[in-house]
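Letters spell out the chain; the tokens describe the backbone. To illustrate:

===
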Amino acid sequence: MQTIARTTALAMLSLFALPPQTSVAQEVKVAGFWKLVSFQTEDVATKEVRNVYGERPLGHMALIEDGRFYAYAFNAPAGPRPSLYDDIACSLADCDPWRYGTVYSGSYRIDGTKFVMRVDHAHTEGAVGAQPFDLTWTEGVSPHEEVRDFRMDAGETVTLRLETPPMMSPNGAGNTIIGRVVWERE
């Protein structure tokens, strides 16, 4: 009887030692390495969907458990999709003059069903002003946090879907868009 009581008491005490179930626990769930699947904008008025970096964009994102993120998104060449290692090697060697895209980093946190990010560094390749910047208001640095709806789906692969609220298009066209980015866990 004492063994059962002691085991129960230890189990109860261990509950107090567990970290609270907060957004930090959710961040651990999303932390990891992600491959870009799609990067789209939808015009709110016309419902026209545009694949910003083409049908098969190249990109990866690292969500670190400490709340930092690092990501890049580029258009893809025609033909076979390069491996992750070929893609990184080419990015570092600047061997792909056909590419345009964005490299960026910052901080993130999860707040319920919201993915909250702040970009503190960004670099755009390609035509100046022609490429949107990961669905944020300005190119370079976000002076405030950017809020995205997010959803994770688990099946054969785990996907992370991010969606902006309606916002003015950052390309200066004057239209309102919704941005959607889909990542797949590597």
Remarks:
- The beta strands are 32-43, 49-51, 58-63, 68-74, 101-111, 114-125, 146-154, 158-163, 167-168, 176-185.
